[in-house]
Amino acid sequence: IAERGATSLRGCMLPQLLRRGLVRAGRAQPATAAAWRSLTATTMDELIQAAPADVSAATAAAGEGNKNYVLLDVRTAKEFGEMRAPGAVNYPAFSMGPDGMAPEPGFLESVQGAFPDAAAQEFFVTCRSGGRSAKACIMLAGAGYTVQNVEGGMNAWTTGGLPTETD
Known about the structure:
Rhodanese domain-containing protein
């Protein structure tokens, strides 16, 4: 693919990547910027395709009666304790590091330990606003899990009037 085509394709896909929380608006670190420029159109398309579909909070809540249903909250333990959806399980995917949110070591291994049969459950993954959960969905899908990202996260859950609980 010609560089011009790849550049315009990156421009078309950038809004989708931003919406899913896969990239952030603003100034990138030099290494991040270099990596971004090196992406080919194929790589960008694969990244978009790897991101599981978003579902509404209402759709996620409606699945609760299904025996294979897992509502996975990937926020920090503190956020989870302050407010969560009833029945949700918490496996933090990211923690605050010196440079902002960083992947939580052992996230995938913790989920795999609790849910060893990847095909046995359908995961609805949530966070505060849908960004961290989109990234977690990509990690989980790569490990063979069936995942859907809750669009808007717990913000959408509460705005939609869905039930919540606290510690």
